[in-house]
Amino acid sequence: MTAVEPDPDTSTESAEATCATCGVPVETDEWHPAATTTTDDGTVEIRSFCGRSCRDRWRERRE
Ligand SMILES: [Zn+2]
């Protein structure tokens, strides 16, 4: 019989994000530019960016 023990590491969430402008993976463990956007139904979404220039470009596109 094997004792079933809860795996302590299973709940580690992989906070994966991609740059909203160019689509490259963003290391969310490290500092990165981010912006919030509100959808039509009032949901606030967080956008991550690989760099400031991508955030600026994203902002320009939305205005
Ligand atoms: Zn980017």
Automatic annotation (TrEMBL):
InterPro entries: DUF7576. This is Small CPxCG-related zinc finger protein. It comes from Haloarchaeobius iranensis.
